[in-house]
Design goal:
The complex is a heterodimer of chains A (253) and B (260). Chain A has 253 residues and is an alpha/beta fold. Chain A is built from ten helices and ten strands. Chain B has one domain. The mean pLDDT of chain B is 93. Chain B is built from nine helices and no strands. The N and C termini of chain B lie far apart (50 Å). The chains are: A alpha/beta (253), B mainly alpha (260). The structure holds adenosine-5'-triphosphate (ATP) and magnesium ion. The site of magnesium ion has 4 residues of chain A, from helix 1.
């Protein structure tokens, strides 16, 4: 279970998170929505300790995690439970696609043999709709959407308990987006993983989410079960899910 | 503008230099700590050895060849003023081994390697690949910095040794073909006068310079600003810092090795 309490983060004068409080239950699929630049990616990175929050508590299973103050071993054990798909895929361009996907399986504790790791990588690639031939290419040889899917394959390769997806379907065609939505749903329901997904795609939200949280103005503006999303009177949520230019969220023009 | 403005400016400058020195020292400490802790990424190390050592050979070799040749001409001209033209072989050898081999080799490697390390790691930083490494339970200091720093430190002495030999050979070519030295005498003079520590000190310098080059490349890459501009600035800073540090370290090492 992930619990965030009153999380703050500023970059210089830019206040990004201003008191985020959110809970994600074990085995739940939480989707974060919110305007561009509201700090959704920063939120996920704070949980992983890639960004150090200025204030606030982050707890996983009741245990506080604090990036730098944690011991090395505790931090490694903590990270071993996570998988993360970065918004820009963040594949290592010096490694082949399969080596990217199998990175955790090739390094660190409990590592597999090269052949096993490669088989696992090819299986994961297949699950995200990439053919085995792709395995031996370098990331720079893939299209943007293919890179995204390879990044997704890497995030799920080691069967993590907690998975963060930063815009998994952005840049994919509608059919492939459907495949990925199904995959994420499958990972949560069949493997019992806890997922936090950032997306702008309302189809995706409805396909993936158990619960939805909307980030606005550095705080969680609204959170609730996906079924309640359409009925909420909150004008911010309504404007966002219907994509209206007019409303409380000012579009700078 | 008040009279204290220049003072304030000077104060800021001193403070920022101190702060940067502190950050570099911390980074150096972290590098050394990561060096002795497992795991060790052998594949990354071999790759770095190829990139930094092997592929720098042509540049270092060319630099040494031309420098050795020019040195022979200059020393001949200088020596002629005292009718001491015969010192050419030994001075070329000593000059290459003690100073020009390590320093010019180091500067060429700084241009080639510090820049490429900073650009590569900087790009990895801005495209979140460094973050991705962390989420995959891999310490970027161990995976990226240690292999490069170790490879540069170990391969620079070899590059310097090769550079010394090629430089001396350049002097020989010029000596024999342009200055009418006898080939056998030239070689004999070189070998007789050159002492072990002339070469050894240059190799030690090389190791230090290699360490500095890779360290600066990694430090500036890891601290790269965002976007292409950030990477560009990191690359430039890495080359400038590595070059200045090489020249400063060279002076200090020369003092330590040779001052009476
Ligand atoms: N490392 C950083 N240094 C400085 N500012 C940063 C950094 N990372 C993020 N920011 C700033 O934080 C704000 C939120 O960024 P973030 O990437 O979290 O937005 P986002 O909600 O994910 O947007 P999008 O939907 O467009 O991906 C932005 O204004 C961004 O400029
Ligand atoms: Mg984002």
């Amino acid at each position: 279970m992930i619990r965030l309490t009153d999380l703050h983060k500023s970059f210089g004068a830019n206040r990004v998170l201003a008191g985020v409080t959110l809970e994600v239950a074990r085995g739940e699929s939480m989707v974060i929505i919110g305007g561009s630049g509201t700090g959704k990616s920063v939120l996920l990175k704070s949980i992983l300790g890639l960004v150090t929050p200025d204030a606030g508590r982050i707890e996983i299973d009741g245990q506080e995690v604090a990036g730098a103050r944690m011991g090395r071993a505790a931090r490694e054990a903590f990270l071993a439970r996570f998988g993360m798909l970065f918004q820009g895929a963040a594949l290592f361009d010096s490694l082949k696609v399969w080596e990217n996907v199998a990175f955790r399986l090739l390094h660190g504790p409990g590592k597999l043999s090269k052949a096993e790791a490669r088989d696992r990588a090819i299986d994961r690639l297949r699950r995200v709709g990439l053919r085995p031939e792709v395995a031996d290419l370098y990331p720079a040889e893939l299209s943007g959407g293919m890179q995204k899917r390879a990044g997704l394959a890497r995030a799920i390769a080691a069967n993590p308990e907690i998975i963060f997806f930063d815009e998994p379907t952005t840049g994919l065609d509608p059919i492939m987006a459907g495949v990925i939505n199904e995959l994420i749903r499958e990972i949560v329901t069949e493997m019992g993983a806890t997922a936090m997904t950032i997306t702008h795609d309302m189809t995706s939200v409805r396909a993936i989410a158990d619960r939805v949280a909307m980030l606005h103005g550095g705080q969680i503006r609204w959170t609730g079960p996906v079924a309640d999303m359409d009925a909420t009177p909150d004008p911010y949520v309504q404007q966002f899910i219907h994509g209206r230019a007019e409303g409380p969220i000012a579009a700078v023009r | 503008m008040s009279v204290t403005a220049p003072l304030a400016w000077l104060g800021h400058l001193v403070l920022s230099i101190l702060a940067e020195t502190g950050r570099v020292s911390r980074f150096t400490g972290a590098t050394l700590a990561a060096l002795v802790r497992p795991p060790f990424y052998a594949r990354e190390f071999l790759h770095a050895l190829l990139q930094i050592g092997w592929l720098s050979l042509p540049v270092v070799g060319m630099t040494a060849l031309f420098t050795g040749g020019a040195l022979a001409l200059q020393i001949y001209a200088g020596g002629a003023r005292f009718s001491a033209e015969s010192v050419v072989p030994s001075i070329v050898a000593i000059g290459m081994a003690r100073e020009l081999g390590p320093v010019l080799g180091g500067l060429m490697v700084a241009a080639r390697v510090a820049s490429s390390i900073a650009a590569e790691i900087g790009t990895m930083k801005v495209t979140e690949q460094v973050d991705a490494l962390v989420t995959l339970s891999t310490d970027p200091m161990k995976y990226l910095t240690v292999p490069r720093v170790l490879a540069a430190t170990l391969s620079m002495p070899v590059l310097v040794a090769v550079g010394d030999s090629i430089g001396i050979f350049g002097g020989y070519l010029v000596g024999v073909n342009r200055l009418d030295f006898n080939g056998a005498t030239y070689i004999k003079n070189t070998v007789d006068f050159l002492q072990f520590w002339d070469v050894g000190s240059g190799l030690v310098k090389g190791a230090v310079f290699g360490f500095l080059v890779a360290l600066m490349g990694c430090y500036h890459g890891m601290n790269s600003g965002r976007g292409a501009q950030g990477v560009g600035r990191a690359t430039k800073s890495a080359v400038v810092a590595a070059s200045v540090l090489i020249l400063a370290a060279n002076y200090l090492l020369t003092e330590a090795f040779f001052s009476a």
